[in-house]
Amino acid sequence: MGKDTLPTKGNLLSVKKTLALAHLGFDLMDRKRNILVREMMGTIDKATAVQSRIDTTFREAYSALREANITLGTCSDLASNVELDNSLSVLWRSVMGVELPRVNSQEIPQSVPYGFAFTNNAFDKAVKSFKKVKILAYEMAELETTVYRLAGAIRKTQKRANALQNIIIPDLTEKENFVTEALEEKEREEFVRLKVLKKRT
Hints:
The chain has helices spanning about 10-70, 75-80, 120-200, and strands at about 90-95, 100-105. By secondary structure, it is mainly α. The longest helix has about 80 residues, at about 120-200.
């Protein structure tokens, strides 16, 4: 509360300085929150588009796999020959101090793990479609993680902005008003005292 502060000129200067910093801090938090919200909304739009592409590509992939299973019999033996993909790496970028992932997947050319004599067009299409799904899944994971991290950062920023706006700034303003009024009262008393002394002399 304001009344805990001694009414001195030094304290008044200190409170004014702290209040100015609190206002600056709130402006920065507000700006940061707006930038993060814009970034998140853009990311959500991208994620919606990617999800739609994943759904379409999955349907194509499973349709082709179903056809391959019908025409070739169960393809699990052929699928087990596909090499493990270790090409995935994660880089990081910073937006207003929030670390966001950037998935980097360099498609490594792999030898075809099955003989063409034992497959058909449906199987080849299924393999190609599932490769697309894999790349889209990487992209979706990046976007979902980005949204999650941005949402957390927005919550923290909002909390700090609210604390500044609703608690710290009003408390400092009250202190400033209390010290200012107390100093003005002291000045009035001093003026009256000097006037009385002058009359007596």
